[in-house]
Design a protein that fits this description.
Layout: E1 2-12, E2 18-29, E3 35-40, H1 43-59, H2 72-82, H3 87-105, H4 115-128, H5 131-150, H6 178-187, H7 190-202, H8 206-210, E4 217-218, E5 223-226, E6 229-232, E7 236-238, E8 247-250, H9 253-266, H10 285-299, H11 307-319, H12 323-330, H13 335-342, H14 351-360
Antiparallel strand pairs: 1-2, 2-3, 4-5, 5-8, 6-7
Length: 382
């Protein structure tokens, strides 16, 4: 049902003059029986509006104009509340929305967001973030907008046609495999074999592990306390990279076994340092690099010691550890940093994660669980 009627408004000015203005009141009723009203200066404009709305009702693609008035954040939060997501997926959406999308368009009316706005947002992300990270953020936005279109909040998704930065396979972090980790530990000088095991099993930074002392290791509770890093080989220490880097980590038995073997085989420094060089002194950066590069050439890998930290993170992601929990283990400042670095490694067991990646890649192949990982995780007995 639809009607258009003349509506005359009358009012009196301060001078007592009576004035009138003719407008046209257009009305139509949707399938739910709700009445929609809009006023126009010209009858033809009102009739065009009615024709457009009723045609949408007939075709089945009608959009309720009232729903489009809500903010993007209001819709996205209501939509998220209706989803049944795995914890990793909830975290992915939470970080992308709160850290990168809401600050830009969260307060905008959702029906006011255009393709040009999405393209501008992607361009701003691309100026400071890696292509893989941009694709992931865009993927979250695209999923929400696609849902809004499906639920007839929008006539279509403003994400359609967005140009994304080209994905360079070399730009995406690809963790080294367990086989490479084991080969490195076998090929490196015996004095540093256990160091590789501990790095791979804890994800510690170079300075953190070189500054690790026996009083920071608890065999009773299977934990390592990280609250400082090696500054100089005198030795002197300094605080970790950031305040959030201070952490106590639960570690697997293989890590504690490696530490005990190191102590028994090579002894410890008078300061309590667990890992020392061939002279029994603190290990300098150049000494570690020399030993590492010698082993890396034998294994034929361009991996660096920091890649063992990425390996540690990838194993946790493969095991289902949440981004927030991984943030604490790695000592990152916030979960957004962890997600930006490792979000593309999230497994494909959850349908929504697959959908995010599918949207991010613009219809390309869905990323599989953890690129570059094969064989059993690094664990005792493996």
């Amino acid at each position: 049902m639809a009607t258009i009627r003349k509506h005359t408004a009358r009012w009196t000015t301060k001078e007592g003059e009576v004035r009138t203005k003719v407008r046209w009141r257009a009305v139509y009723v949707d399938r739910a029986g709700e009445e929609h009203v809009k006023h126009f200066d010209r009858k033809t404009e009102g009739q065009d509006w009615i024709d457009e709305q009723t045609a949408g009702l007939v075709r089945g693609d009608w959009v309720n104009p009232e729903l489009g008035k809500q903010t993007f954040k209001a819709y996205a939060e209501a939509w998220r509340a209706r989803q049944v997501h795995a914890e990793s997926t909830r975290t992915t959406f939470e970080i992308a929305l709160n850290a990168h999308i809401y600050p830009k368009i969260g307060d905008w009316r959702i029906d006011s967001i255009r393709q040009a706005d999405v393209q501008e947002l992607v361009a701003k992300w691309s100026a400071t973030a890696a292509p893989t990270t941009v694709h992931l953020r865009y993927g979250v936005l695209a999923i929400v907008m696609k849902a809004a279109a499906k639920e007839r909040v929008l006539a279509g998704s403003p994400c359609e046609g967005t140009r994304l930065p080209r994905l360079d396979p070399k730009s995406a972090l690809v963790p080294i495999t367990t086989d490479v980790v084991k080969e490195l530990s076998e090929m490196i000088y015996p004095r540093y074999k256990n160091l590789i095991t501990v790095l791979a099993g804890t994800g510690m930074r170079r300075g953190e592990i070189l500054g690790l002392t026996v009083d920071r290791v608890s065999t009773d509770f299977n934990t390592i306390r990280v609250d400082r890093q090696l500054r100089t080989t005198e030795p002197t220490w300094k605080p970790p990279k950031t305040p959030s880097s201070v952490r106590t980590m639960a570690v697997p038995d293989i890590v504690l076994e490696a530490i005990e073997d190191q102590k028994k085989t090579f002894g410890i420094h008078e300061s309590g340092l667990i890992f020392t060089n061939s002279s029994g002194n603190p290990i300098g950066k150049s000494t570690l690099w020399m030993a590492w590069n010698t082993a890396a050439k034998k294994v034929k890998t361009d991996a660096t010691p920091h890649d063992l930290r990425h390996y540690f993170a990838s194993m946790h992601i493969r095991a289902g550890t949440s981004i927030k929990a991984l943030q604490a283990l790695l000592g990152h400042k916030n979960a957004a940093e962890t997600w930006d670095t490792y979000g593309h490694l999230i497994g494909d067991e959850d349908e929504t994660v697959r959908a995010v990646l599918q949207a991010a890649l613009g219809g390309g192949p869905v990323l599989k669980s953890v690129p570059g990982i094969s064989g059993d995780p690094w664990a005792a007995g493996s």
